[in-house]
């Protein structure tokens, strides 16, 4: 009986050590925690902030137009060099990033006025901001239905890097033209490999059963 319990605890430990597949790694994914107003040029991990503070008026958290909760991001594209970003540098190990299939999603809204556009980038990176692949695209006023929230989504495989990549940066950048966009509910999560966890569990239970059978 003791052996069986020990096997069970061992299996629990292994499963607990496995990456939490499917969890959204973006902190404050709905812009509910970030203080309303123009985003600070604070940098750092796991925060929404603006790079190059001189252009920070392009990026604000506001309470008027939102998909969920009380707040959403407002992007004004007139200042071309603004970049907003968050990343998961403090939360992930390289083994939880590299080679994994990642799924991303965010929702965007515009009133359709102007000719503005911006880019989104999901970058596989590290503490030195050495980026290696990911996903990117361009959002244009003409590509959206005005006054309607539209979901942008896709997936990609995170590149293996040397040195290891343990960050997933989510950027909004490449502003041009003059329009206002709103962004809410940003998601970035790993896509579980079909049956991988189940196969591992079955293999371990099978091994435990094999041990029990051979002790009789
Ligand atoms: Ca929100």
Automatic annotation (TrEMBL):
Residues 1-22 form the signal peptide. InterPro entries: Galactose-bd-like_sf (IPR008979), Ice-binding_C (IPR013424). SUPFAM superfamilies: Galactose-binding domain-like (SSF49785). This is PEP-CTERM protein-sorting domain-containing protein. The chain crosses the membrane at residues 194-210. Keywords: Membrane, Signal, Transmembrane, Transmembrane helix.
């Amino acid at each position: 009986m003791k052996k069986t319990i020990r096997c069970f605890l061992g299996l629990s430990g292994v499963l607990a050590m496995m990456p939490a597949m499917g969890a959204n790694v973006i902190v404050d994914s709905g812009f509910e925690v970030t203080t309303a107003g123009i985003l600070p040029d604070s940098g750092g991990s796991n925060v929404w902030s603006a790079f190059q503070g001189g252009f920070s008026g392009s990026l604000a958290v506001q309470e008027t137009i939102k998909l969920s909760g009380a707040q959403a991001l407002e992007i004004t594209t007139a200042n071309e060099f603004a970049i907003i970003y968050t990343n998961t540098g403090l939360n992930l190990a390289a083994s939880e990033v590299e080679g994994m299939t990642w799924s991303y999603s965010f929702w965007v809204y515009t009133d359709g006025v102007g000719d503005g556009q911006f880019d989104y980038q999901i970058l596989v990176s590290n503490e030195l901001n050495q980026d290696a692949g990911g996903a990117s695209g361009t959002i244009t006023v003409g590509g959206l239905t005005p006054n309607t929230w539209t979901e942008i989504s896709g997936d990609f495989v995170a590149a293996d890097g040397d040195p290891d990549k343990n960050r997933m940066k989510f950027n909004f950048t490449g502003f041009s033209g003059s329009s206002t966009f709103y962004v809410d509910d940003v998601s970035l999560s790993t896509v579980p490999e079909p049956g991988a966890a189940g196969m591992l569990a079955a293999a371990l239970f099978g091994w435990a059963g094999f041990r029990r059978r051979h002790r009789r």
